[in-house]
Amino acid sequence: MSKPIEIRNPRTGKYDYVIIPPPERLLVQQCNRLRRAQQNWFDLGLDGRIDVLLKWKDAILSNRDKLTEALVIDTGRLRESKLEIDWFLSGIDRWCRLGSKLLQDTEKGTSIPFINLQQTAVPYALVGVISPWNFPLLLSTIDTIPALLAGCAVIVKPSEITPRFMAPLMNAVSTVPKLRDILSFIEGNGKTGEILVDNVDLICFTGSIETGQQIAIAAAQRLIPAFLELAGKNPAIVLKSANIDLATSAILWGSVFNSGQSCFSIERIYVAEDILEEFYHKLVAKAYKLKLAYPTLNSGEIGPIITETQAAIINEHLLDAIEKGGIIHCGGEVEEKGGGWWCHPTVITEVNHDMKVMNEETFGPIMPIASFSTVESAIELANDSFYGLSAAVFSESRDEALKIARQIDAGAININDAGLTVMMHEAEKNAFKFSGLGSSRMGVSALTRFMRKKAFLIKTNSNYDPWWFNK
Ligand code: NAD
Q1: All domains of the chain in start order, with CATH
Q2: Mapping DSSP to helix (H, G, I), strand (E, B) and coil, where does residue 206 land?
Q3: Residue of 8, 133, 211, 306 to test ligand 1 pocket, by largest number of atoms within 8 Å of CB
């Protein structure tokens, strides 16, 4: 019997939920059962699989209130939980539409006139998905849906910090028999994740760099593919010509949405020195208008910091910045209210790259602003980082912004906006540097990365080949 894990409620601080990770033997059995069922799932064909996924969507729609309720307790926030469910449901439709354009066998002639080539693609049998706590539903399903469409069986281990949403989600799965056979969500912690990596044929991981590196090593030892989506420290560059009103609104949203607990959050802001003062005055004025969603879910826009560890990291970064000369204009330290941890949108100036708030992921509603004198130095500052997930450039000139965007080492660059990748999944993009590894989880690659290409080289006549031994 595994040891139960008590789960903290982010609004009350009380440990009011318990999960019990499956013992290793049962988890291995479950992986084997899913793998055995996979061939039948693949044999259903793309249309058959789309049909099953749409039934899952219907089951979730009729279970939506329970799913929302559980997700809200997991994360302590309402607005983002509703959006997560919308994005998840629209994701099913989008991938189903994309799937119909793909995965078709083809046969054609080759450079050798009597040899034809038939191409097909074979899914990995069992895909493992391990996900973090900041968007529990979205990030445990973003890889799951395309893997299922590609014809894989999938086992998902969401974060032990936010596990409550799994029960209503699995209830919906259990009403769709063909899905129940090839999709499981399991409770558990890092140890459960390790066992999972040892028993799947491909692993999709979203989470911290440290865990991603451990998973990369474990996957390398088994020679299975690992798709890693890791941390970010995303810069925004605001050029002199930028529309300051638009830039401050977009950057505010991009920095404090989900209380800054988003991999795509803007965490470093570089502003042309001529407009610095106007920019931060406007940003501070807008930040002041945002309220904490405390004491009730509807009291404001900013939900709690979900984990105590993250609250401590945010405070450590703020104190480090203050000690080294940073000036806070609004917001400030994370504070305890009713057992939860809360942080007002915080604007800091006089920051530099020796500060943690500029060189480590903060994952809070913190907006550090530095100025630059030349475009070249802005690009240099943006690239002076281990991370390369996403970025933003604000300029009146689309061409100027794109020219700068091309020089930034990151996979997704928003022009005159921020955080678009959370809701717009058509973009093909890779994580650069320490922010990840592997094929794009968006666009057409979201599906094709779950399949291995297979070729049939077909001789079309009965002649002797000129290169055979003439015996
Ligand atoms: P984490 O690495 O601590 O945990 C993530 C998951 O890995 C959890 O389910 C955990 O149980 C599991 N895990 C822990 N140790 C493991 C091991 N040795 N083997 C297998 N599984 C293991 O990350 P977190 O704190 O939950 O998530 C926050 C991080 O995720 C942030 O750094 C954030 O930037 C990143 N993130 C990235 C993206 C992206 O798309 N790039 C999206 C969201 C979050």
Answers
A1: 5-230+435-456 (3.40.605.10), 234-422 (3.40.309.10)
A2: strand
A3: 211
